[in-house]
Amino acid sequence: MDTALADRLAAVDARIADAARSAGRDPAAITRIVVTKFHPVSLITDLYALGVRDVGENRQQELTAKHGEVGALDGLWWHFIGQAQTNKARAVRAASDAVHSVDRARIADALDAAGAGDVLDVLLKVNLTDDPGRGGVAPAEVESLAAHVRTLPSLRVRGVMAVAPLEEAPARAFERLRASADDVRRVVPDATWISAGMTGDFPEAIAMGATHLRIGSAITGPRPPRD
Fold it and tell me: Residue 50: which domain range?
């Protein structure tokens, strides 16, 4: 067993618990997703042995390959957190239990069309900047997107997701995301997930109501060099 990995995981979980208690929240209500992009598939099996049941990937090709190699591990959830593309919707759906990056009707429609009976959990990605090139639905449009996705029979709107801009204090950005979450719940009352917070800002995300954290290097260590 990789003792360094176990130590990093325990240290992050302790920080999550501290941040939750400081915010008056139950640490057990927060899901820690370990982002494993660019790491070998063996990391996922090591994490699973340590009790991790939620992993995240950013790229469809890597998600598909690792999902196929790992095989069936009881209770392991695969979260796709990268930018979704319509031409890869079928592959993303085949290897995901939850997709965090639905930001337009077209990708929602493509994911729905790729369904084969099961219901896929999805989150609406919100753009917290004024730059449309950053990806994500504008906060003013998130409610209408939620209304559209709600009509798709094989998708289940679970909440919202965002990345805090580097040029802004995370707490301010996550406060706006929480407002978007309220907008979505006006359309889908049980859409209670807020996917926010990464290695550098997850305490602020917890304080603003995040239910799902996407944490990479603080747990996995540095990414290996890419070929």
Answer: 3-220
In the chain, the N- to C-terminal Cα span, in Å, equals 26
Higher-confidence residue of 201 and 131: namely 201
Residue 136, token pair as written in the block = 């994500």
Identity (one letter) of the amino acid at 82? Answer: G
In a domain, 57, yes or no: yes
Contact (CB, 8 A) for 157 and 184 = yes
Return the bridge partners of 102, or none: 124
Please name which of 70, 120, 53 lies closest in space to residue 90, comparing C-alpha atoms.
120
Domain assignment present for 152: yes
Distance between CA atoms of residues 2 and 5, nearest Å: 5
Quick check: 165 and 128 in contact, CB under 8 A?
yes
Tell me how many domains the chain contains.
Answer: 1
The per-residue DSSP string of 166-218 comes to TTS-HHHHHHHHHHHHHHHHHHSTT--EEE---TTTHHHHHHTT-SEEEE-HH
The 10s digit of each residue's pLDDT in 56-101 is 999 999 999 999 999 889 999 999 999 989 999 999 999 999 999 9
What's the pLDDT tens digit per position in 24-50?
999 999 999 999 999 999 999 999 999
Q: Which of 107-111, 133-137, 140-144, 145-149 has the lowest mean pLDDT?
A: 133-137
Residue 45 lies in a domain: yes
Instruction: For residue 226, tell me if it sits in a domain.
Output: no
Report if pTM > 0.90: yes
